[in-house]
Amino acid sequence: MARPKEFDEQRAVDAAMHAFWSAGYEATSTQELCAATGLGRSSIYNTFTSKHDLFDRALERYITVKNATIFEILDSEAPARERIGAVLRQIADAPESEPAGCLVVNSVVELAPHDAAVAATLRADQERRLAALTATIESGQRAGEFAAGGDARALAEFLIATISGMRVAARGGADRDTLAAIADTAMRCL
Question: Is the Cβ–Cβ distance between 32 and 23 less than 8 Å?
């Protein structure tokens, strides 16, 4: 009979997520994962099979948590311009609370070029965010909040690039005022 798990698997994934987020995949050792999760090496490998499997679960968790607020904002009944402005302000307000930047952006740079599984996860995440932003921009165009002739998907891609750039700038030490200025500039481009 299998022995029952003596730990909260989701808590372990959250702890690993913070370790990977802080140091990156390659720089996070198994020993550091043990320290972060409070688990022994055998418990980690028995539950998650590999460091990469644990990273995949941590990345999925991060994406789910981070996107929840963004999708909540974009799915609201507020005018489209207000919804997009709220998303950008949320990014601008986060630098002190997220000194490790963004795990998605960090993973795009560190892993996506040579890890097909991570690249596929990141592409799927980007497509979900692009679809939500494109739909918001299209609704804003129909309502006259944005110029009707603009390519909504191209504008959504511009916003994704802007948000990623803001997250990189925050990790590099940009303060809230700098990030807010970037957000304001992006809003004027719409």
Answer: yes
